[in-house]
Amino acid sequence: MGVRHKAYKATLDRGYASEWNDDHITDFTDEITHDFNLITTAITTEWDTAQTSGGSAPTISMVSGHAFVVLNTGAVTNNTSSMRAKLGGSANNITNASDLPILSCSVNIAAVHTSGTVVEFGFQKYDDTIFTTNKSHALFRVKDNKLYAVCGDGTAETEVLIGNYNQYGHYRIEFTSTSVKFYVDNMVTAAATITTHIPTNDMTIKFSVISQNNVNSTIRVDGCSLTILRKK
Known about the structure:
mainly beta; Jelly Rolls; 2 helices; globular; 9-stranded antiparallel sheet
């Protein structure tokens, strides 16, 4: 998974050493980045799949000559396929809003019904039931064939329409001290910024799909990275 640079320069524009260092050096002075291995180890090494119900548990598969983690519900209404990041080998929360976490991932939304909520991925409390209301989360949602940015604090949520989605996209969720920013493909300009109902509890990372109207839901996760503050 490539690193998206923060600074963009036109030809002959001046560049600074600080910009290069900020873009290219893994520096544990301020933050820690973990790239989840989605190819060489069993999916259950770093991910728990117990919230899958009726659908197929996520698997690492070759699709058209490329390796993905595939989540597939099957064509039965309310089947789910889901995976959540582990802490020390067990399902648990791995970060908190105070960490100012940043999630980057590449997702192929391969097949979904055009009505209802069918896909959610991002930060969620590990033991919250997927696709239920009043969850603690900051995530992307595909609903009624549109892409949304969503934040929930456990009692209510804010849902912001982003618009149409590309079948294959690069997504980022970035916590700040006052907001959560959502990026889609363009890593410079946020597609949505939410300042209300921001979760304050511990969270993990989840990718989930659910079937609607007996239509299969399938997504393919190409890569996933988490950046958090280093606690001093």
